[in-house]
Amino acid sequence: MVPIKTHLQKNILQPAMYNNVQLVRLLRGNHFSYFTNFPSDAAAAVELTLASQCHSSEDGRTVGFSNEYFANLADIHQRMPFVLKAAAQFDELLRRSDRHLIEQAILDIAAGRGVR
Questions:
Q1: Please, what is the end-to-end C-alpha distance for the chain in angstroms?
Q2: pTM more than 0.85
Q3: What does the pLDDT look like over 11-33, one tens digit per residue?
Q4: Which residue range is the domain that position 45 belongs to?
C-alpha cells in the first residue's frame, strides 16, 4: 500500500502542478535567484511556514526546502524529503507545550483571518 503522502505528491500534485513547464521554470528561477541574490532581493526562499504568516519564524515553525543552488522542487525525489521533514516538524509541533500556536494558526486560516 502506498502512503497517502506519496500518493498525493506523485499521483495528484506532480501531474497537476509540477509537470507544468512554466511553473517549473518559475520555481527553479526563484530558487536560483534567492541563493545567488541576483537580481538583488528579487526572490524568496522556498519554505513552508507552519503558521498563519508568510515570513519565516524563528520558533521552529518554518521548514526550508534546500540550500543547493540547483535544487528543483518539481523533482519528486528532491521534494519528498522536504515533505517528510515538514510532516515530521508538524507532528513535533503538535506534541510540544506550545501546541496552541499551531492550533491558533489553523483556526486563523480556517476562519479566513489572514496573515499575521
A1: 39
A2: no
A3: 999 999 999 999 999 999 999 99
A4: 4-110
